[in-house]
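worker-3 :: picked O-fucosyltransferase family protein
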Amino acid sequence: MRAAASAVLWTAVVQLASIAGLFRPRVLADCGGGGGVGGVAGLAALAGEDTGAARLSPPALVPKRIYKSNGYLRVTCNGGLNQMRAGICDMVTIARHLNLTLVVPELDKRSFWADPSDFGDIFDVDHFINSLRDELMIVKELPLKLQLRTKKRLYSMPPVSWSNETYYLKRILPLARKHKVIHFDKSDARLANNGLPIQLQMLRCRVNFQALRFTPQIEALGRKLISTLQRSGQFVVLHLRYEMDMLSFSGCTHGCSSKETEELTRMRYAYPWWKEKEIDSVVKRLQGLCPLTPEEITLVLKALGFTKDTLIYIASGEIYGGERRLAVLKAAYPKLVRKEKILSPDELRPFQNHSTQMAALDYMVSLASDIFIPSYDGNMARVVEGHRRYMGFRKTIVLDRKKLVELLDLFQGGALSWDEFSDAVKESHKSRMGQPTERKIIPGQPKEEDYFYANPQECLGSNGGLRDIS
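worker-3 :: tokens ->
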């Protein structure tokens, strides 16, 4: 009798709780947990109703690609922001090709700037992982068992530069299967420019243009910079690669004092991974292998027809020689600005001493500019050029430095009048404005080919449209 009474009482309690909304059937409870839809929004979504809460739900994730992983790939990227960016795109592509699980890449902290930023300080990690889940598995860290194992022994190597997919299948895949975890200690230029299957080229683009999204903090400040510049009308971004590390590494000292030349040379010898030590600056400049000086770029901008009222945003780190070296450029173009002039110290403070995060702001502004002009063909110049091509072949003036040095010397030596100099500069750059063009292929000389990320032609439409890379 007591058991029967308890059963009746329990039934009544459950019914009352259910009526009061204190008890939910499991199917509805499941809708409210684990990241699914829940509550009013969840029920409305199940019923097909459009509520404000339902509209705020995160977008549906792409389905996971199910595959048997052949091991884990750890990567330590080297270089600055854009060298690492291209390297990350390559590493994702290689991991997908070999059916590996990729660990979120580690970023270079040994470069000239010694930036302590991690991947998640620059890029949106969750977006990176989720947007590519239909291609490969990406994890934030190795499983604990493998973490302990790799602390004792980790198979580490740099892949051979400019390699095709066969190299990775025949040489790298067996190593990954054998060691379970393989570590690439370099990521720059480890995949060929040309001759790869279209699927791999398209995946490189998808990673670059869709998966590598900057953090919300960088995106918000970058949009503010762009909005401020656009309120003043059209603007030009000048990527003035006249920084201490570039001059030291390249050995380019044109326009520098003897004291500055000695300082730059000492710095080159201080970094063992900069292998070329003895450099003839004069010869290198005549070959077009030096960044243009601020004084030279001023003459080139005038020759190209940019007037004194042109708004120019300088995208760069600290200019070597400081304000003294910018004096001529400022005199010619008074509306010369940098992020430090547009944003307040408080706004920039979280990004100070983080060169890659500051470079990310410049990257966003460079993409949005009406015209982009790099003074040197380094990694940022090339990656931005390719991204602007992808955005509809936006105007990018790729300077022919070898021709310009020749013309500058003739003009400054009195052999050319200003009109002759200006006409020659314009004529030599008519076909260097970011128009659609075929990427150059030189069999057996991959370093001399056009860089994939400067012209990812497989991902571009012939008339400025985009190919579907999803």
